[in-house]
């Protein structure tokens, strides 16, 4: 089946309104934090689900997500056991991490800024030939901010996800899908994950800031 645009919105091809769920075969829920203030330790959650309700006005869309705390892995058994213990996620007592969106904003100005930077840096533009570098129409921005609340260990705090929209199409199986990636940072101590060790040389064994890195595809659910 030939893929096709779903619908157009401000120059972007976006999904039709409806309910979409995270494709378990095409997802990654990753994170990293600094170790001994010199290098990142990376890991991921193997089990997680998300439901995305795309509205007629995409800026009124909503997202809910659940992550299984015990599915955490950094590919090191002792470290994984410690991260799942009461010192950190306490997965036995708090089995899930939850996200609920509260708003969406389109970062429509990003491409104009990037275009201006390219124009200024291109030598042709300084020779009186801006037409050589200025496209007929600037590429629309696929960047969004998704605001919401993240709950860890029964503590809920606001968080902001920077989302890069990847596009929408119909796959060879006749399913309407769209792709995305997202990043966010939060202070783990704000959620009660306060365990640490002070280093003799100064600083802390585990960084306070955790960076989330999420990517995946969402599939439309038939009514």
Report on the structure:
The chain has helices at 77-84, 110-121, and strands at 7-9, 12-14, 18-35, 39-45, 48-54, 62-68, 72-73, 96-106, 143-152, 155-170, 176-187, 209-220. The chain has 223 residues and is mainly β. The chain folds into 2 domains: 7-107 and 142-220, Beta Barrel (Lipocalin), CATH 2.40.128; 108-140. The strands form 2 sheets. It has an 8-stranded antiparallel barrel with strand order 3-5-6-8-9-10-11-12. The protein has a two-stranded antiparallel sheet with strand order 1-2.
Structural class: mainly beta
Span from first to last CA? 21 Å
Q: How many strand elements?
A: 12
Taking pLDDT < 50 over at least 5 consecutive residues as the criterion, the unreliable ranges are 130-134
Give the number of helices.
Answer: 2
Fraction of residues in helix = under 10%
Approximately how much beta-strand content do the residues carry?
over 45%
CATH homology-level superfamily of the largest domain: Lipid/polyisoprenoid-binding, YceI-like
How many structural domains? 2
How are the strands ordered across the major sheet? 3-5-6-8-9-10-11-12
Shape verdict: elongated
Gross CATH architecture of the largest domain: Beta Barrel
- What is the radius of gyration? 21 Å
CATH class of the largest domain: Mainly Beta
């Amino acid at each position: 089946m030939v893929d096709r645009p779903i619908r157009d919105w401000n120059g972007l091809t976006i999904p039709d309104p409806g309910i979409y769920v995270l494709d378990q075969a095409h997802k990654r829920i990753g994170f990293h934090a600094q170790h001994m203030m010199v290098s990142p330790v990376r890991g991921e959650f193997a089990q997680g689900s998300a439901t995305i309700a795309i509205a007629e006005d995409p800026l009124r869309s909503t997202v809910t997500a659940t992550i299984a705390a015990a599915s955490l892995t950094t590919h090191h058994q002792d470290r994984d056991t410690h991260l799942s213990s009461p010192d950190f996620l306490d997965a036995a007592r708090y089995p899930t991490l939850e996200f609920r969106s509260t708003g969406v904003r389109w970062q429509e100005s990003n491409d104009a800024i990037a275009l201006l930077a390219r124009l200024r840096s291109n030598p042709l533009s300084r020779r009186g030939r801006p037409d050589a570098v200025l496209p007929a129409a600037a590429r629309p921005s696929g960047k969004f901010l998704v605001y919401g609340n993240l709950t860890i260990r029964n503590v809920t705090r606001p968080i902001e996800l920077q989302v890069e929209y990847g596009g929408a199409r119909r796959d060879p199986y006749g399913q309407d899908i769209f792709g995305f990636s997202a990043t966010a940072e939060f202070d783990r101590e704000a959620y009660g994950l306060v365990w640490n060790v002070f280093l003799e040389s100064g600083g802390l064994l585990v960084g306070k800031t955790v960076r989330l890195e999420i990517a995946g595809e969402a599939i439309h659910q038939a009514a």
